[in-house]
From TrEMBL:
Domain of life (superkingdom): Eukaryota
Gene Ontology terms: biological process: chromatin remodeling
Protein name, UniProt field: Bushy growth protein
Main location: nucleus
Organism: Papaver nudicaule (Iceland poppy)
Keyword annotations of the record: Nucleus, Transcription, Transcription regulation
Pfam family, one: SNF5
Compartment annotation: Nucleus
Family under the similarity heading: Belongs to the SNF5 family.
One GO location term (cellular component): nuclear chromosome
InterPro entries reported in the protein's UniProt record: SNF5 (IPR006939)
Keyword Nucleus: yes
Amino acid sequence: MKYYAGTFPKIQPVKFRIPTSEALIPIRLDIEVDGNRFKDSFTWNPTEPDSEVVLFAKRTVKDLKLAPAFITQISQSIQSQLNEFRSLEGQEMLTTEKIVTLKLDLRVNNTIIRDQFLWDLNNFESDPEEFARTFCQDLDIKDPEVGPAVAVAIREQLYEIATQSVTSARETRISKKGRRGGEYVSASKVGGAAVDLMKLFGGKSSVLRKRKEWDLYEPIVDLLSKEEVEALDAREERHARMKKRFSDMDDVYLTNYSSG
């Protein structure tokens, strides 16, 4: 959808913020030490002191009986993701009245969830954790790990959209210097696949699932057998090993190239 000069909606720059009531950062870990792999995802409050990162890593390693070498790896990964978030704080991002489609494609233990729904980016009181709890109740999902995984997946997508909005604001400031006359702004330039909220819902602003109108927006929940879970786990492990092998080969190539 394109808006021509004089007709496009006013896009106001605001300070960077994730469009949720709490600014929790989605953290994802995928770490391998001496052939042992640790994966996890959760949210982190950026106002917590950095000293909590190491304490969290030590508790995790102790509780899960991981090798001590994981403490440093977990700490560095969390700190790196926190630093990335903090680098965005105070920067401008573009915002306009819109909703976006968020998608879920998760496997948590033996439960597979696929779904998509509309999310209002202008609702800064939205609560992904509450949405995830309601989602699990509505679909009668018993596994207590599914709700947190759904909330993290939502927060990851909202965080990515907010990050893209910062990039869009930066590019707009640069392009304004040499831009004049009859221009247009594409709605897709701001925050990815956006839908005009006013046109679709007459000004209503909320998280929506229009099942009666769009069969596409129908959640799918599958329970896998033990054998299917084991097969998927084995496939993921093979993929992770291949990815690491190619990464190591690239590192060796770059080292040899720079030294040559």
